[in-house]
Amino acid sequence: MIPKLIVFLALTVTVLSQNAEEFLKVVEKSVKHATERKGRIFNPAYVGSTYKQYAGAQHRPTFLYNQQPVAEEKFDFIVVGSGSAGSVVANRLSENPDWKILLLEVGEEASFLTDIPAIAPIFQFTNYNWNYLAEKQENVCLGLDGQRMAWPRGRAVGGSSIINYMIHVRGNRRDYDRWAASGNPGWSYEDVLPYFIKSEDARVEKQDGELRGRGGYLTVSDVPFRSESAHAFVRGAQEVGHKYVDYNGADQLGVSYVQADQRDGYRCSTEKAFLRPARERPNLKILAQARAIKILINPKTNSAFGITYVKNRQYFNAYAKKEVILSAGAFNSPQLLMLSGIGPKEHLQELDIPLVKDLPVGQKLYDHLTFFGQVFTVNQSIVNLQKAVTQPSAFVELLFKGRGPLTSLGGVEALAYIKTNVSRDPDPSFPDVEIIFVGGSLSTDNGDFYRKTFKVSDEIYNAVFGPLENGFTWMGIPMLVHPRSVGYLKLKSKNPYHWPKFYGNYFTDPENLDIKTFIAAIREVQRISDSPSMQKYGSTLVTTKIPGCQHHTFNSDEYWECSLRHISATLHHQVATCKMGPSHDPEAVVDSKLRVYGVKRLRVVDSSVIPMPPTAHTNAPSVMIGEKASDLIKEDWIKAKGNIRSKDIRRHSP
Ligand SMILES: Cc1cc2nc3c(=O)[nH]c(=O)nc-3n(C[C@H](O)[C@H](O)[C@H](O)COP(=O)(O)OP(=O)(O)OC[C@H]3O[C@@H](n4cnc5c(N)ncnc54)[C@H](O)[C@@H]3O)c2cc1C
Ligand SMILES: *[C@@H]1O[C@H](CO)[C@@H](O)[C@H](O)[C@H]1NC(C)=O
Ligand SMILES: *[C@@H]1O[C@H](CO)[C@@H](O)[C@H](O)[C@H]1NC(C)=O
């Protein structure tokens, strides 16, 4: 299927590019490369880079970020990491022509292939993924290869927004009001709403107009392609009592079609949204494939003054006259802090890292788990079939019209926010589960990608999903939005090239409420399956028991608990590793202005500051954090006077 995919792409791009010969060479070389390197089935990063070699710079978006390092260069601000938050910060700070900004990013720039929404999971097998694995945990991940969960993370200009599923969710009003109530002034819903609006260019049909943005950098769209099964699900959910809502509007509780970080049918990454419009500013220097390995901190003043980074296998120092801003994401921002001596004292001593500041870095880690062990079949071809995606017509539709099945978010078509009957929250409008409608299951692509991204074992795949390969399946995968279980991360060593060690600690809350909530959600999905609209297509629960849980009665609570402990996996929303909180909070790493406690001129601006798991996927909240932090930084350096004068800025320089 995959070589075919490449050929179709080649043909369509060839027609467009009038560069037939060059492009065919690229494809040829890339297929050869893919077959030679086992494990890397298909490497779009490689296709991209080879493409560059042949086609030269006239093809967008090649060579956008190829500036060169200069030894001992001075800047006003250094931003580390160009992901969902870092891209925004680089853009907003460089709006001030008097400030010189350096943006460092380990990853390379994306190729045109990452723009195609339907093949999102493929990029987890490329260099655009850090490819982390969580440590093994007793009694969870029992049905995953090696019993270790994959924790993917973007590693590209644009960060995780290059490989994510593009689901756009702001979160619940209550999420932000809780941040504020726990001692973070400025982060209530009313405070952050203007920033969601500021970034956004909303092009969705069902929207609460006054709460949505127009003309912002980040395009948020309806997905042009909708399968008949998605319509059935959205109708069915309403039939059993869920309201049809704009979940990014006034009320979140309810059901709707998915809203996407998408522009004209293609991925709208933060690279596309925020960096591309800013990249030609003379005061913004963007270095791709440059890895920050240490924050430079003056031990006398505990003041950050620069970054040591590696590019082209050479070490460089860059200096920040004003601030260093870490936007390296929820895994690498805490890693960099600890490598630089900011972290738990005992842990740093263990690793022989000189202590700069004792802080609980990495000690908190919330994550959103999901579960794909409940599958339904329907009796007609109403689902988003893999076949439709690999038709040549699908490519033609995408390339010429920005429509068709290739615009699908890897199969995700609708979301429902529900409050299950085991929720203990007094607020009737605060969901405890999100249900993600997928017009397919792990069997849809014959086990090629989806199940491999989650590392579901052959044994389970062959028993449960293999027999469904030619059938019509759908899933409503629950996502536990407010988990009680808390994980952590730490360093493996002081070598900046070593992976940190990740501990999910899933399903460890003493009252087992995380499991109970999942089971309640599983039953709610069954209720939707029983709705007239789903029954019109004979929606039926697949009753094959997963290997390892055969001793339980199918559909009993015990069966689902066993299943959950076999094939739950992360939906990649790890947060709180550099938690924001007031000075009296023993878990806090940064204050409400995102300044690292006890170290001057150093902030963390990304998903790692999120103090509690939000009722959202974390891309939109990370963009919001980038927007809000940029204003906080501007306020601090351009004191109140209203207009920006370089004299004012200089007065605050070292
Ligand atoms: C597979 C996957 C699917 C997802 N799906 C969705 C979705 O559908 N919707 C949604 O809202 N969210 C989704 N998410 C989550 C969301 O994308 C992330 O939470 C969000 O992008 C985090 O933003 P960030 O700015 O904190 O970090 P990132 O976007 O991860 O950016 C961090 C950047 O820093 C770089 N970096 C790290 N260390 C260094 C260093 N030492 N030097 C230089 N650069 C460095 C990294 O390479 C990376 O580019 C998904 C995530 C993944 C991995
Ligand atoms: C929740 O609802 C399910 C059925 O939908 C029922 O079996 C269960 O007993 C209920 N639990 C509580 C705590 O009410
Ligand atoms: C699918 O099932 C429904 C409900 O049982 C039935 O009405 C319908 O005719 C079936 N369709 C097909 C194509 O079998």
Structural features, described:
- It comes from Brassicogethes aeneus.
- Pfam families: GMC_oxred_C, GMC_oxred_N.
- Belongs to the GMC oxidoreductase family.
- The chain is of the alpha/beta class and 654 residues long.
- It has 3 domains: 2-55, no CATH class; 73-110 and 283-363 and 577-649, FAD/NAD(P)-binding domain, CATH 3.50.50.60; 116-149 and 224-257 and 369-487 and 506-570, Cholesterol Oxidase, domain 2.
- The chain contains 19 helices and 25 strands.
- Strands 1, 2, 10, 11, 12, 13 and 25 form a 7-stranded mixed beta sheet that branches. Strands 7-18-19-20-17-23 form a 6-stranded antiparallel beta sheet. The protein has a 4-stranded mixed beta sheet with strand order 5-6-8-9.
- Strand 11 (290-298) and strand 12 form a beta hairpin.
- Helix 1 (2-17) packs parallel to helix 12.
- The radius of gyration is 24 Å and the shape is globular.
- The termini are far apart.
- The relative contact order is 0.16.
- It binds flavin-adenine dinucleotide and 2-acetamido-2-deoxy-beta-D-glucopyranose (NAG) (2 copies).
Q: What's a quick, concise take on this entry?
A:
It contains 19 helices and 25 strands. With 654 residues, it is an alpha/beta fold. Helix 1 runs parallel beside helix 12 and helix 6 packs across helix 18.
- State the helix count: 19
Classify the beta-strand content into a percent band. 15-25%
Which geometry do the CA atoms define? Answer: globular
Identify the CATH architecture of the largest domain. 2-Layer Sandwich
Count of domains? 3
Largest sheet: 7 strands, mixed
CATH fold-type name of the largest domain: Cholesterol Oxidase, domain 2
How many individual β-strands? 25
- What top-tier CATH class of the largest domain fits best? Alpha Beta
Radius of gyration: 24 Å
Helix-strand category: alpha/beta
Oligomer: single chain
What compounds are bound to the protein?
Answer: flavin-adenine dinucleotide, 2-acetamido-2-deoxy-beta-D-glucopyranose
Q: How much helical structure, as a percent, in the residues?
A: 25-40%
